[in-house]
Design brief:
Blueprint: H1 2-35, H2 45-53, H3 61-67, H4 78-90, E1 95-102, E2 106-113, H5 119-133, E3 139-143, H6 149-157, H7 165-176
Parallel strand pairs: 2-3
Antiparallel strand pairs: 1-2
Helix pairs in contact: 4-5
Length: about 180
């Protein structure tokens, strides 16, 4: 009988110990969840306003490894990037119109400027704007020749799978490079 009581006592002790380990893991995970910046509960409208102005993410290696199973691919919205570049350039009132095309590795910007604007200064503004928005590996080509705007637009509309698509881009880039490129 004494052996049975000791056996029961040991089993209860082991079960209590396992339960304690699970509680510790649960508490740790709860703390991680509370600190997760993507968690949106308990936010006041002021907090949401601040969150719209800031971007912050923090992951542990374990969370990152767990999310690798999602097979997420990092992508860029090229239309959004082209729109952002164009809008920033147009904040300068010397630019009358701007067309921007973002490809897989190039940014093509054609624009029309006021007569009073220096061509090199305009090229510098367009180039630096694109450099500030895009990753460093993109080749940025600018042109103050507004007749290239329809050419850039035609590239956007045409199918990228056509055999002469890259040749067309290369010809337009070659033409654009005859314009001032600003300080590279």
């Amino acid at each position: 009988m004494k052996k049975i009581n000791i056996a029961i006592f040991i089993m209860l002790f082991i079960i209590a110990g396992c339960d304690r380990t699970n509680n510790t893991l649960d508490e740790r995970e709860q703390r991680v969840n509370e600190l997760n910046p993507e968690r949106e509960e308990h936010q006041t409208p002021g907090d949401q306003e601040i969150n719209d102005q800031l971007g912050y993410v923090h992951y542990t290696q374990e969370q990152f490894d767990r999310n690798q199973d999602d097979d997420r691919v990092v992508t860029m919205d090229r239309n959004e990037m082209a729109s952002m570049i164009t809008r920033i350039i147009l904040r300068n009132e010397a630019f009358n119109q701007v067309a921007t095309l973002v490809t897989g590795d190039e940014v093509l910007i054609a624009y029309e400027i006021d007569d009073g604007m220096d061509e090199n200064n305009a090229a510098e503004i367009a180039r630096k704007t694109a450099e500030s928005v895009m990753p460093r590996y993109f080749d940025i080509v600018v042109s103050d020749n507004p007749s290239l705007i329809p050419d850039i637009q035609s590239l956007h509309i045409s199918e990228t799978t056509r055999p002469n698509y890259q040749n067309t881009i290369d010809k337009i880039v070659e033409e654009m490079k005859t314009s001032p490129q600003g300080d590279e």
